[in-house]
Amino acid sequence: xxxxxxxxxxxxxxxxxxxxxxxxxxxxxxxxxxxxxxxxxxxxxxxxxxxxxxxxxxxxxxxxxxxxxxxxxxxxxxxxxxxxxxxxxxxxxxxxxxxxxxxxxxxxxxxxxxxxxxxxxxxxxxxxxxxxxxxxxxxxxxxxxxxxxxxxxxxxxxxxxxxxxxxxxxxxxxxxxxxxxxxxxxxxxxxxxxxxxxxxxxxxxxxxxxxxxxxxxxxxxxxxxxxxxxxxxxxxxxxxxxxxxxxxxxxxxxxxxxxxxxxxxxxxxxxxxxxxxxxxxxxxxxxxxxxxxxxxxxxxxxxxxxxxxxxxxxxxxxxxxxxxxxxxxxxxxxxxxxxxxxxxxxxxxxxxxxxxxxxxxxxxxxxxxxxxxxxxxxxxxxxxxxxxxxxxxxxxxxxxxxxxxxxxxxxxxxxxxxxxxxxxxxxxxxxxxxxxxxxxxxxxxxxxxxxxxxxxxxxxxxxxxxxxxxxxxxxxxxxxxxxxxxxxxxxxxxxxxxxxxxxxxxxxxxxxxxxxxxxxxxxxxxxxxxxxxxxxxxxxxxxxxxxxxxxxxxxxxxxxxxxxxxxxxxxxxxxxxxxxxxxxxxxxxxxxxxxxxxxxxxxxxxxxxxxxxxxxxxxxxxxxxxxxxxxxxxxxxxxxxxxxxxxxxxxxxxxxxxxxxxxxxxxxxxxxxxxxxxxxxxxxxxxxxxxxxxxxxxxxxxxxxxxxxxxxxxxxxxxxxxxxxxxxxxxxxxxxxxxxxxxxxxxxxxxxxxxxxxxx
Length: 760
What we know:
Helices cover 20% and strands 31% of the residues. The chain has 13 helices and 44 strands. The strands form 12 sheets. It has an 8-stranded parallel β-sheet with strand order 31-30-29-28-27-26-25-32, with helices on one face. Strand 41 (608-615) and strand 42 form a beta hairpin. Helix 1 packs parallel to helix 2 (315-324), helix 3 runs parallel beside helix 4 and helix 6 (479-493) runs parallel beside helix 7 (538-547).
């Protein structure tokens, strides 16, 4: 029989570079797994977190192993590469930080030393290397000793579970093909609620059977995520010598360019979120309770789909998605920058992703890459890499589709965009330039130009911290602008059924150590929920009111108490038919729900006011207070290009840095002013590029926009969407800080230029 023993306790750890020890080290740090060495420096915003080789060691007495059995060490996740040593002998190397792999052990002694050299350093062959998240080094998932008989189900092939289940629907029944990877006699069972409902025994090398489930109970997403169990038992005569099992679901799906996602023959719009897995201080070294908390929050907001970005997630999380009925996009970390030497690694990571996760009914698409064309879409090596991956996926899995996430600037006619079965785009119109309305306009044009290609929205969002304003503007990082942005996106998404899936970026704030935005470095704050999972931002409730069947009533801006205006706007999200708002016990009015679950009231701001919202049996409260001066704790503090809204003069009818590049460019004097600005930036950029090596040695950063290195070539492609950027936003996205005085001086010049007359 198969025996699995967890060995997470009592490891030793060191960062010091040294030879592989042959005896238990005395001066290493004592730790338990899971563990990352970047839990703090990978989240502090220094862009200097340790990336190198660290060492883990554990003493394993002979009692740790099963006598007269074959013993493996199973690693569920080691980032990014590792070498495994047993009693001083190197047994195995693995590249790829997010998947399961196993190492067979030999020559077990009375006392044994297991050493793992783990490396997350920069290289040109193992993905990811360039991306907007922290690459935590460590053994950050479980480690176990797996003991089996000499004859056992396959353990060495890309972390396989040893069993592969492929259901197909035939009327009211399901045909279930089960493959088992072993040599011998195998009994196959399908189990429904602990009862065997179909069984057959086959002898052979990697035998398979087709079993029937009559009157099959379908896996039907969040509506009814019904699961069966398939098991394979390896027999020696009548004795069981090994057993593997997996849960599975029976469902059909298709993606239609006009109707979107269709589950079990019915239209089932996929509307949900993307997920990064990390947490404060522990990074990716999560426990089951963390995965469970995440899935509960995602279910609470009412999502029915998750894009699991940008790598293979823990098996426990896929299991939870199966149970909750969440439809999943799973992908490998082939991201941002194509590496010609990384082809083999994309292949091995894709094989591991599919082979280890094939049986999960929640998964419907395999993601080939994410924003891989930041350096251009015409690289033949990159295009060929996608062809190879696409063919590989279809060879390994004939039941699912391929997809990928394409960056906004990439031309939809690019050859590589045509490779996968369906495609999605990452759009941030309304945050990284443009206006929120451009999102819908873009999709309408794509759908018109490419009517036979199913298109989705793989990322959209904007950042919000605990900053507040009554006049939210693009790029201000306030909770109020994030709420406004998502209200507008909800309006556009809801009217476009042809968008096969929308995945909001992101469910949770996450660490990106290279970031320096929003007043808190090292974080991407686009989450609906804070990094510590303790605070649900207002936008969370906008989606809950739209998606969830649970009754919702939420007053926005509860953290924005002190307000200077005499009348103030109060926004309420609710999926109830009618909402009434009271101010200090006096009704402000009732409103009936329109097309969208958003209610807006004007309230007199006098003294301190207690707000009470009612909708049926639901109630919610908040407090506002009249003040003479803006509460500075609501205002983002950051050196350089970030300027608060109240510091910018914007006379009626005249331009300011709050206006977009396109608006300013449309006037002669504005165009002249911007050309002078562009020349100065070009001069600064040329100077930086010519001194790149020396500056890097001094630890200074290259010029960046949106977290991406800027070269003259990449600047040209970025300018395609620059017309929609507010001038102030352009400055805030330039990595090298520009003095506030420079921006305010530019604003004064623009204040003398009349705005162009409206064409309407």
